[in-house]
Amino acid sequence: MITSYFPKYVALFAICVLCVGALDTFIAAVYEHAVILPNRTETPVSKEEALLLMNKNIDVLENAVKLAARQGAHIIVTPEDGIYGWVFTRETIYPYLEDIPDPEVNWIPCTDPQRFGYTPVQQRLSCLAKDNSIYVVANIGDKKPCNASDPQCPPDGRYQYNTDVVFDSEGRLVARYHKYNLFAPEIQFDFPKDSESVTFETPFGKFGIFTCFDIFSHTPAVVVVDEFQVDSVLYPVAWYNTLPLLSAVPFHSAWARAMRVNLLAANTHNTSMHMTGSGIYAPEAVKVYHYDMETESGQLMLSELKSRPRSEPTYPAAVDWSAYARSVKPFSSEQSNFPGMIYFDELTFIELKRNTGNYTVCQKDLCCHLTYKMSEKRTDEVYALGAFDGLHTVEGQYYLQICTLLKCQISDLRTCGEPVGSAFTKLEEFSLSGTFATRYVFPQIILSGSQLAPERYYEVLRDGRLRSRSRTPLPVLVLALYGRVFDKDPPRLGQGPRRLE
Ligand SMILES: *[C@@H]1O[C@H](CO)[C@@H](O)[C@H](O)[C@H]1NC(C)=O
Ligand SMILES: *[C@@H]1O[C@H](CO)[C@@H](O)[C@H](O)[C@H]1NC(C)=O
Ligand SMILES: *[C@@H]1O[C@H](CO)[C@@H](O)[C@H](O)[C@H]1NC(C)=O
Ligand SMILES: *[C@@H]1O[C@H](CO)[C@@H](O)[C@H](O)[C@H]1NC(C)=O
């Protein structure tokens, strides 16, 4: 009798663990951190000095973790390079690195600190998670010795990886992700040989993780969302804003909207480097964001998110980004096109000469349509509609299709595409669409002062139009549909440091 009851008992127990543990919503926290930088990075420091500096940063992060936990947060994300800064060579980053084991080893550094050698940073992060019962996400450096038996082993006998780690609320290492798409200046780190899609389950949904420049990628960024079907993405960044199209908050929130996933983005804070802009983004809305070019302080943000947005009735429908644009005839115009540069890419532009109108501008296979109405056509501000269809090749290689309406820097048309911070012209109505050859298009609206447009003022229709919803006039700096065409990418986005052989 006992044996026949036993399996039932086990099954019942398992079901109850799931129903008691599972949460419909959770509280997410991100911390924008003003990193305390090392005094010197051109020559190597001792391990002790490196640890002293890292502990100063962890002291600040510790306050944020405690504050977040006290407010009920289940998970907190801290930024890329948040523990030691960003300007290093291979040699000068070395004293900051620790050997980070594969999470499969099932390790709680806080309670078993000696198990994998000297790992004081992992121990401290693990204790922060355990003592405050909160998942902690941080970015640190991993080192892995190698030797001549591996032909790719660097001459100094080790691989060095830009690495995200996650400790669960018991302090256990549950995720380790080596940044796959390094950004060009990251000469201190190696590209991992293979891409890894790092995901893990929690009582509040399935998580994926990647870092900064990875957001431009198919692997791992699109893969964790579309193939691994995660609910939320953890996203440490050290992102410097470049208007018009690559500012952290508009770009990251557009990605979350288009990919229909929660995104927890934590940026470093350094105004002279234009590093600011963190937020918590849900598929249907920006929950909270922070952008501050005035002070040098860090900032904690919290917001409640759905644990499994895919199974919610409010989950947004997929967008067919070219449906509308392919169904209409191009608008004709007697005006001539002119070229303009955005972040080393040459767009084809057309000037908006009147306060209302319809325009089409094309480049290669992409045509962008705009219908708009301004409150008035100011003589001191010039707006242009631009199209780009091509391979971007500076600081990484990736294929783009972009439709954008933007304010030119001054009334000279040669400044269209250059960064500009404020606008007085107000748009009452707009509708922007393009004949995109991709399912991955990120819609952005940036207002004067680099502010996001509140969602009630616009909508993304299922036929791919980015359209005004109310007649409230908005001081628009940039409207953009930023498309990524992954089939036309080279194998890797990043251009690594070339090693002489
Ligand atoms: C950096 O230099 C300052 C001033 O000399 C000193 O107070 C500080 O401890 C140094 N920081 C580190 C991490 O060595
Ligand atoms: C170095 O190579 C030997 C075989 O030649 C191997 O047994 C050893 O594990 C290697 N060490 C490392 C750190 O890869
Ligand atoms: C910001 O970063 C720059 C470049 O790394 C550095 O020189 C500067 O000291 C940093 N500012 C602050 C406030 O840390
Ligand atoms: C723009 O096109 C729409 C139809 O698509 C038309 O109703 C409207 O009058 C046009 N506006 C201008 C200013 O040409």
Produce the secondary structure layout:
Elements: H1 2-21, E1 25-32, H2 47-70, E2 75-77, H3 90-93, H4 120-132, E3 135-145, E4 158-167, E5 173-178, E6 199-202, E7 205-209, H5 218-227, E8 232-237, H6 248-259, E9 262-267, E10 278-281, E11 286-290, E12 299-306, H7 323-327, E13 338-342, E14 345-351, E15 356-363, E16 366-374, E17 383-392, E18 398-407, E19 427-434, E20 441-447, E21 451-452, E22 458-460, E23 466-468, E24 476-484
Parallel strand pairs: 1-2, 2-3, 7-8, 8-9
Antiparallel strand pairs: 1-12, 3-4, 4-5, 6-7, 9-10, 10-11, 13-14, 14-17, 15-16, 16-19, 17-18, 18-24, 19-23, 20-21, 20-24, 22-23
One 2-acetamido-2-deoxy-beta-D-glucopyranose is lined by residues 145-147, 149.
Active site: 80, 179, 212
Protein name: CN hydrolase domain-containing protein
GO molecular function: pantetheine hydrolase activity
Give a description of the structure.
InterPro entries: Biotinidase-like_euk, Biotinidase/VNN, C-N_Hydrolase, C-N_Hydrolase_sf, Vanin_C. One of its GO terms (molecular function) is pantetheine hydrolase activity. This is CN hydrolase domain-containing protein. The active site is at residues 80, 179, 212. This protein is α+β, with helices and mostly antiparallel strands. It has 2 domains: 21-311, Carbon-nitrogen hydrolase (Nitrilase/N-carbamoyl-D-aminoacid amidohydrolase, 4-Layer Sandwich); 323-495, no CATH class. The protein has 7 helices and 24 strands. A 7-stranded antiparallel beta sheet has the order 13-14-17-18-24-20-21. A 6-stranded mixed beta sheet has the order 5-4-3-2-1-12. A 6-stranded mixed beta sheet has the order 6-7-8-9-10-11, with helices on one face. Mean pLDDT is 93; it is low at 1-18 and 496-501. Bound molecules: 2-acetamido-2-deoxy-beta-D-glucopyranose (NAG) (4 copies). One 2-acetamido-2-deoxy-beta-D-glucopyranose is lined by residues 37, 87, 270, 272-273, 296. One 2-acetamido-2-deoxy-beta-D-glucopyranose binds at residues 145-147, 149.
